[in-house]
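Bumping with the actual sequence this time:
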Amino acid sequence: MGTIQEDGFMPVRYRRSLSDVVVDRNVILDDGIRPTSKLLYVVLLALPADTDIRDAAPALVGVDSSDDLDQYLAELADAGLIETGMEEGEPVVIVHQASA
């Protein structure tokens, strides 16, 4: 699994095109996912594809730097809401929309 601490651009990718952000209530009410992780998930759903999350996400979720996002990305990956990895030699975050 890649981390955002790696050098290079880390864009957001989606399994399908999203025009509206809809979050399953089970994600929001899941007490096993921290509030900052939930907010990051919503932000990732809302960001345009190919946005570098290291630039866009920290201020939107209230963390000091992109390095602080790793723990929340790991939590979202463990919950099956995102995948992190490499695509065409670059680190990416693939966002899955939970069924509403």
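The tokens above came from a reply further down the thread. The radius of gyration is 12 Å.
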